[in-house]
Amino acid sequence: MGFFDKLKVGLEKTRKGLTEKIEQLIVGYADIDDEFLDDLEAILLTADVGVKTTAQLLSDVRAGIKNKQIQSPEELKPFLQEKISAILMNGETAEPEVQPPMVIMVVGVNGVGKTTTIGKLGNYYREQGKTVMLAAGDTFRAAAIEQLEIWGGRIGAEVIKHTEGSDPAAVVFDAVQSAKARKVDVLIIDTAGRLHTKSNLMEELKKIYRIINRELPGAPHSTLLVLDATTGQNAVNQAKLFGEAAAVSGLVLTKLDGTAKGGVVIAIKSELNVPVRWIGIGEGLQDLRPFDPAAFSQALFAD
Ligand SMILES: Nc1nc2c(ncn2[C@@H]2O[C@H](COP(=O)(O)OP(=O)(O)O)[C@@H](O)[C@H]2O)c(=O)[nH]1
Ligand SMILES: [Mg+2]
């Protein structure tokens, strides 16, 4: 199955909760009245599109009715699809090309899929013929280091690690030195995500960031925040939290396979000023792709 088909299957539940309900709504009403708009609002909110984005879409619809862009319920679906596409496309820019080593720092709370994303991302660059190095910056548990080593073995990437409990900043220092000395193309840095005390985690991330930047000016070239799509609005809140502490340059949305909360992508795009870079739709090597807004909205609205 190709990625698009897999994305469509993955978004099945979101589509059932959003697109199919909109279709049922359209069939159920002869005219767009206040009741219709109330029902539409409820559908959008339930699909995790978010309060702010839902309000925006409803005001777009009202404007569309007023200026006769929408004259009947059937005209609502293409209208909404277009508005949602526009939200998804907003602010998406290509990653700038950088001189190797390109350093990518990966942050996010525990369990969202950071380490798995690093494995898949490393594989993506390997398939482009690039050399990849991974840094085990989550030193909190031995299992976290082992998990990264397994991914390194699978994709043919060297893993820089220290022992459990060691200072992540020291691991990162070593990794940047090795990446420069061995001229690797891409260095991807794993970090811990335990939120037991928020300020500690944020301070640790800032320290790692400073070390990377001191050892390689301009780096990290991107700081990716990983968010678990199945957590819906929580993902939006995490993005706000991390955005305040770390200079997040892009988002990765994981676990879009089989979630009914895929609408959260729309909320994230409209509420945060950070581009979605990658989406994850499974645990396999191939299950991560660059975010393609057009393909995403097409998969969401596909019949
Ligand atoms: N279904 C699905 N599972 C995922 C995806 N990404 C990660 N996972 C799973 O989520 C769990 C936590 O992932 P992990 O990478 O250890 O998270 P971390 O704590 O942020 O490093 C693991 O069981 C992963 O296999 C995804 O895109 N789809
Ligand atoms: Mg991890």
TrEMBL record:
Involved in targeting and insertion of nascent membrane proteins into the cytoplasmic membrane. Acts as a receptor for the complex formed by the signal recognition particle (SRP) and the ribosome-nascent chain (RNC). The keyword Hydrolase applies. This is Signal recognition particle receptor FtsY. It catalyses: GTP + H2O = GDP + phosphate + H(+). Belongs to the GTP-binding SRP family. FtsY subfamily. Keywords: Cell membrane, Cytoplasm, GTP-binding, Hydrolase, Membrane, Nucleotide-binding, Receptor. SMART domains: AAA, SRP54, SRP54_N. CDD domains: FtsY (cd17874). The lineage of its organism: Bacteria, Bacillati, Bacillota, Negativicutes, Selenomonadales. It comes from the Bacteria. It is a peripheral membrane protein. Part of the signal recognition particle protein translocation system, which is composed of SRP and FtsY. Residues 101-302 form the SRP54-type proteins GTP-binding domain. It comes from Propionispora vibrioides. One of its GO terms (molecular function) is signal recognition particle binding.
